[in-house]
Amino acid sequence: MGVKRIAVIGAGVSGLGAVKCCLEEGLEPTCFEKRSDIGGLWKYEEIPKSGNLGIYKSLTCNTSKEMTAFSDYPIPDHFPNYMHNSKMMEYLKMYARHFGLMKHIQFQTNVCSIKKRPDFSSSGQWDVVVETEEMQKTYIFDGIMVCSGHYTEKYFPLQDFEGISKFQGSCLHTWEYKHPDNFVGKRVAVIGLGNSGADVASEISRVADQFEDGTKENIDIVIFATGYKLSFPFLSDASGVLDNQYSMFKYVFPPELEKPTLAFIGILQPAGALLPTSELQSRWVVHVFKGLKKLPSRRAMIADINRKKQIMAKDSKKSLKGHRRVTFIDYMDEIASEIGVKPNLLSLLLWDTKLAKEVFCGPCTSYQYRLQGPGKWHGARAAILTQRERILKPLRTRVVKQSHLSPLSWVKSVCVVIFFFIFVLVIMHITSH
Fold this sequence. Notes:
By secondary structure, this protein is α/β, with parallel strands linked by helices. The protein has 13 helices and 15 strands. α5 links the parallel β10 and β11. The chain is globular. It is a single-pass membrane protein. It is an enzyme of class 1 (oxidoreductase). Its EC number is 1.-.-.-.
């Protein structure tokens, strides 16, 4: 049997990681991206093209660079710890160039449909119809990695607000917001306090008029920071693949398929960075596609899904994405165990105490999932041991030459400290009387 051909839908952070993981395991990926560049939502557009969701100009990553980095490609040490979207795009382009990903991406290509082939029960193959420049083409793939993300369709619940039809002002969703210039002197209400709602409200508050809570006001503009809905229009006729809650085994594999050749990457909501989470998912998926790892039975997968739903029902607030929330470290360890790359702390403690201390006591960065097993990276140890240096580097705005003090200098310094301490005590004694 020849090299398996894999379709990757989307060239954002999840899609780039998926393409790289396919190449790493000897698969042949083809990535379809409807935009003209990589990065997905991280690509800022002042005027988004029709159908493209966008970000606001000031958007800054809310997870630190060490926690956000790909597992085998640390973010440059001089980059800020919390990167502006332009820096994030710069990093993604560096990653794509370094691993030669660009030649595997077809830009300005829209995926129209994904359907099982007639012999799917035996081959597991899919027919993928794409459109570019008003021309359609059909491909046959051995596996599909859906990396279009969970910011694909805005949730705009106007019908839930009484009297909205009588409102004389403007209503818009946060994806339409770019910068505060258009809101100078306006009376603006922001509905929703998620990540974007907090950012937009804070930014607009500097230029818009203010009003008191609990009062009735004539509002000019209402901005809905109400989030997004999952949407996979290319799978709309694939009955039996997904239920209305998008229930999947470990948030990746639909349990109802005869062959595990369809995977969804990065549609969960981790309490942490999405990039390393989706990358680890992709590493697991390519092993399943190659037959190196097996999924449990359909019954076992559904039982696991239902068990997690029950846990989420107790812990999560009622929201669109509550049933997809996961704890970052627990989930990363869970997927790492499936691949066989979860670090063995006991072994590290015996053979590399310094590394064990940093893995156990330091931040849970993704480099630790490259220390052993499939996809082992020889630079992982160094990346872990130098991660604190990369955190401090952008905070050092100037370099001071370190002087080597002589023993006499140390004595003088101690004497100065003692003198200062005695002086403070004397002053306190005088003032108390």
